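Annex B. Sample input.
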Amino acid sequence: MVMFPKIEVKELRVSYGEKLVLKGITLTIPRNEITAIIGPSGCGKSTLIKALNRMVELVPEAKVGGQVFLDGEDIYAPDVDAVTIRRRIGMVFQKPNPFPSSIYHNVAFGPRILGVNDRAKLDDVVQESLVRANLWDETKDRLRENALSLSGGQQQRLCIARALATNPEVLLLDEPASALDPISTAKVEDLLRDLKREVTIVLVTHNMQQAIRVSDRTGFMLLGELVEFKPTSELFDHPSDSRTEAYITGKFG
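Annex B, continued. Sample output.
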């Protein structure tokens, strides 16, 4: 049996109107690892991960070229359903964005969309997802409370629980801790280390120390190009490209 990488990207190009944002990205994302994507603002990091689950298509002027394979299947092939891909590859955004409804409803939303209406099954999914997101003990007696009553760090873990409720195979995170205090950031990082046993994780971060702490591999992007991609310790200790060295040593960015 052939074992494909979890995600394989080949010559991925994305443009918004006339502006070319990704300029032929090629990389391989192994399964059950945390892959960090670093680089200065505007280099294409967020566009890259949105292209990995076809969310970039929701931007009206976006055009995509190249290929993205999930377990060997081209997700941009004409017969592949984008909604199915977005279920298999979940996403959590920079700013916590819980729905202004109960904690329970936030987590149950995705399963309900997928047709799960049995209350007992929903109860199980909600509990399991909150446990996986390390949030159950903090919320088990508050499930009917408005999710907006949670702290910022709890809201972000709730958004991760909401993404986990549909059992994705890959989790994309766009600066998930940028708005959090150090204690909440540490909880999110601990959560990611636990989750990689179950899912493949791609993490966009401006925080290079965070990439060092949690990721197995790191890619450095600049001006829409992937400058280099290698095991995290190797990239930070022995960068191959002078632009990578300049960025990680703080000479720009």
